[in-house]
Design goal:
single chain, globular, mainly beta, 8-stranded mixed sheet, DUF1618 domain-containing protein
């Protein structure tokens, strides 16, 4: 199977490489972070398997390049985080999640239970896009393109157990069902979220025969 690009941020690329028989695909499902350029030249880092052998989809996981500190230690200058948000299957109430976080400094995965704050209301959040925001709090955004954004500060996972919710504009025109990525998209550009929506217009097509013209 060809390598799959799951996420990008600045000069980092999160890849999935599967080298395994179909009947044992979990063991051969590896995550890599590729850095094409920078201090020390290109690098390819193999991440350890997430606990429980969980497999993340591209709409669940993102990579965040963290700013370099004023340190002479080469390892201190280049570190990153990989974060994935999954529904908490053990919770009865909605709005409960598990944040899986890989911190390259520690080279380990952690799993932290998170909940949505009370300032926004989302009936059922379904990730469709993950956007790296960055900043001092190392913020990452888990986006439901139909409903809204869940913001998580990765540098304060324990101190801030709640995910901040920001709603997106309602669909323009009649409701559209199906995959939101076919008509909506979002990006973080120059400190702001840029949101776009494609509005579909259907043209009536009529058959033409010898007796009638539409």
């Amino acid at each position: 199977m060809e390598p799959q690009v799951l996420a990008t941020d600045e000069n980092l690329v999160l890849l999935r490489v599967v080298v395994s028989p179909e009947k044992n695909i979990i063991k051969g499902n590896d995550l890599y972070v590729y850095k094409p350029a920078g201090d020390g030249g290109p690098s390819l880092t193999l991440l350890p398997q997430p606990p429980g052998g969980i497999i993340f989809c591209s709409y669940q996981v993102g990579v965040l390049s963290c700013p370099a500190n004023n340190s002479r230690d080469e390892k201190e200058k280049s570190f990153f985080m990989v974060a994935a948000l999954c529904h908490d299957e053990s919770a009865i109430a909605r709005g409960r999640f598990v944040l899986h976080l890989y911190y390259s400094k520690h080279q380990t995965w952690t799993a932290t239970k998170k909940c949505q704050d009370d300032q926004g209301y989302c009936l059922l959040h379904q990730n469709t896009r993950v956007v790296a925001v960055g900043g001092e709090d190392a913020t990452i955004a888990f986006v439901d393109l139909w409903q809204g954004i869940l913001l998580c500060d990765l540098s304060q996972v324990e101190a801030k157990p709640c995910l901040r919710y920001a709603p997106l504009p309602p669909p323009a025109g009649p409701p559209i069902l199906g995959d939101a990525r076919l008509s909506r998209d979002i990006a973080f550009v120059e400190g702001r979220f840029k949101y776009v929506q494609q509005q579909l217009h259907w043209l009536q097509v009529c058959s033409v025969d010898q007796t009638s013209v539409c």
